[in-house]
UniProtKB/TrEMBL annotation:
Pfam families cross-referenced by the UniProt entry: LacI, Peripla_BP_3
Keywords: DNA-binding, Transcription, Transcription regulation
Keyword flag DNA-binding: yes
A single MF term (Gene Ontology): DNA-binding transcription factor activity
Transmembrane parts of this sequence: none
Residue ranges annotated for the HTH lacI-type domain, each copy included: 6-60
Protein name: HTH-type transcriptional regulator DegA
InterPro entries from the UniProt entry: HTH_LacI (IPR000843), LacI/GalR-like_sensor (IPR046335), Lambda_DNA-bd_dom_sf (IPR010982), Peripla_BP_I (IPR028082)
PROSITE patterns to which the protein is assigned, alphabetical: HTH_LACI_2
Top-level taxon of the source organism: Bacteria
């Protein structure tokens, strides 16, 4: 149901204080004075403010239900993350409810606005929206609902987050290509403005700079995260007859596999003529031919750690947000073998 009654923004405006202060006062946070808390509570009563979820300090009951918002469920990475979340949730007596955005920022906003907060203790979210367009999450955080982000995280929202080291993983991938003898390396990446996209792009650029290799804007292509997007990106890169890259670093394995399909159509020998490396370590990497080099992400650990942090926030309203960054592992296979 849509959330439109008196909100904490209305209370903040009436008192001339920040939304964050009102939120902390309602949650009985340690850094709000007793006088301010009392004033906020009295104003909330006068304005008929009705918290419709159990995360504020006004309501202590728990549903033992967690919402998980993810872009997709059909790929290996997210299914593994969910396995990690489920394992921790079940051990602690919680059930999880999945909400799938299909990589649509508009659908993500609708899901967040329409969530029934009275039925959830907290939210785990991997965002589909650009980092600077996540105020729909900030609204529910300000209202006191615990949120932890994982994998794709908004840069400017100050809550706990768990992610792999996107920068270092990308740097490792490009450095691996360079050490294998590739010198004209393109990057098929995700949508602009996504924190993950920008971090992996930085790793790509910095590796090229270190080894004095050219960074060509026409060799950096932004698009979606799907296999079809990877296929289309490779078509754009190789539709010309000159100035072609001799290697591709893809933002994830699905895009790398899509690029390999395109290269095979052009009878380009993967590895020998054009190296390809991905990011995730999807099981498909070992099934396709040639097998795909990649950077393995700690998906199970990301899911488990995210859920552990969310439960800490639920149990302790003044738990200080933390950022957890987990390392990936370079896995060399046939797609980067020039021999």
């Amino acid at each position: 149901m849509l959330r439109r009654y008196t909100t904490i923004k209305d209370i903040a405006k009436a008192l001339g204080i920040s939304v964050a202060t009102v939120s902390r006062a309602l949650r009985d946070a340690y850094d709000v004075s007793p006088q301010t808390r009392q004033l906020v509570l009295e104003t909330a009563i006068k304005m008929n403010y009705k918290p419709n979820f159990n995360a504020t300090g006004l309501v202590k009951s728990s549903t033992h239900k967690l919402g998980v918002i993810i872009p997709a469920i059909t790929n290996y990475y997210f299914s593994t993350v969910i396995t990690g979340i489920q394992e921790v949730a079940q051990k602690n007596g919680y059930n999880i409810f999945l909400y799938i955005t299909n990589d649509s920022s508009d659908l993500e906003k609708d899901i967040v606005k329409d969530l029934s907060f009275s039925s959830l203790d907290g939210i785990l979210a991997c965002v589909s929206s650009p980092s600077d367009a996540c105020m729909h999450f900030q609204d529910i955080i300000d209202d006191g609902l615990p949120v932890v982000f994982f994998d794709r995280v908004p840069e400017q929202i100050n809550v706990s987050r768990v992610m792999q080291d996107d920068y270092d993983g990308a740097y490792q991938a490009v450095e691996h290509l360079i050490k294998k003898g590739y010198t004209k390396i393109a990057h098929i990446t995700g949508p602009k403005g996504v924190f993950l996209t920008e971090n992996r792009l930085r790793g790509y650029r910095d590796a090229l700079i270190k080894y004095n290799l050219p960074i060509r804007n026409e060799w950096i292509i932004y698009s979606g995260f799907s296999q079809k997007a990877g296929e289309a990106d490779a078509e754009l890169l190789f539709e010309k007859s000159e100035n072609l890259p001799d290697a591709l670093f893809a933002v994830n394995d699905r895009k790398a596999i899509g690029a390999m399909i395109s290269l095979k159509r052009r009878n380009i020998k993967i590895g020998k003529e054009v190296g390809v490396i991905g990011f995730t370590n999807d099981p498909m990497c070992e099934i396709i031919f040639p097998t795909l080099s990649t950077v393995a992400e700690p998906a199970l650990e990301i899911g488990m750690k995210s859920c552990e942090l969310l439960l800490k926030h639920i149990r302790k309203s003044n738990f200080v947000p933390v950022e957890v960054v987990l390392s990936g592992e370079l896995i060399e296979r046939e797609s980067t073998n020039r021999n």
